[in-house]
């Protein structure tokens, strides 16, 4: 097991804790991380691009003029795609870009993402992060003491004061264990684990 220092909000070492090697210290494969991140980003695409086809355009269905005898090309109703203001042909319709990656691969990628942070010394374990009231100033003060920017903070349960205090700080995100994902771990330079969240992560990834 990897042994890491546990610090407090003043960046002082208070104890040590063990991190399971099968989660926090496994070989990292970029191809697997890429596969899962691509899947996550595909699921986030809105897929709302759309055009109006001739059945969606407002207008009469009356034939503009008779089929034969005018010397002109035969013409249907005014909603024809060939006419100005008519419907579009072969345009996009709303769709979902989501696809699935096997559960085992997603879980493995999550372990690799956490391992990459530990191996590059960008993972910090904090004993607790308690803020008495919702104050961005207090949150920034703690981040200054830890000398950290661009940080993802992982908690084991709802911490309203922390979540709301960090909401307006750029390049900072507070995430609960149930929402932990590969994209956010890799997106932020530093990861701060609350000590109480380690058991929850192990429970999720060792099952």
Main attributes?
6-stranded mixed beta sheet, alpha/beta, Ribosomal Protein L4, Chain: A, elongated, about 210 residues
Q: What is the helix content?
A: 25-40%
Strand content: 15-25%
Determine the oligomeric state from the structure.
single chain
Q: Structural class of the secondary structure composition?
A: alpha/beta
End-to-end Cα distance, whole Å, is 18 Å
CATH architecture label name of the largest domain: 3-Layer(aba) Sandwich
What's the total count of β strands?
A: 6
CATH class of the largest domain: Alpha Beta
Query: What is the number of domains?
Result: 2
State the strand order across the main sheet: 2-1-3-6-4-5
In CATH, what is the homologous superfamily of the largest domain? Answer: Ribosomal protein L4/L1
Number of helices: 7
Largest sheet features: 6 strands, mixed
Rounded average pLDDT: 93
**What's the overall geometry?**
elongated
Under CATH, the topology of the largest domain can be stated as: Ribosomal Protein L4, Chain: A
What low-confidence regions span 5 or more consecutive residues with pLDDT below 50? none
Give the H and E element order: EEHHHEHEHEHEH
Radius of gyration: 27 Å
